[in-house]
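Pilot study result, target chain (135 residues):
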Amino acid sequence: MADIFDVIADGTRRDILRLLLDRAAAGHDGTSVSQIVTELGVSQPTVSKHLKVLREADLVTVREEGQHRFYRLETAPLDAVDDWIVPFLDHAESAAPLEPVALPDSAAHAADVVGRAAASAKHAWESALKKLPGR
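Predicted structure:
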């Protein structure tokens, strides 16, 4: 199996993973290759090549229905990334401890919604920039 860090180092593969995550969160039980091609604006051979790498790393599973293949995200292999990153986060927190701030439930919910919207907008912006000619 390929090193998970090598697999997720590629921007197109991260875009595919993000797309699969977003579609799963929206209730989709799989995403076809043609949907990925359309959403990301990359060629079908490129998407297929990256999906093969993601399959080999167990980051996606495929379900076949006739001639169509539907892909789903599998997050378990990303536990290795968490295991590697968490000690750095723990170290950063111990180096500069912050006082916890208790937010009212409504403010905590608003912060969560705004944070998710900002992350989604950033991803959409980055994806749109990649589609521009000359990029």
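One observation from the pilot: The chain has two domains: 4-98, 102-135. A full batch analysis is planned for the follow-on phase.
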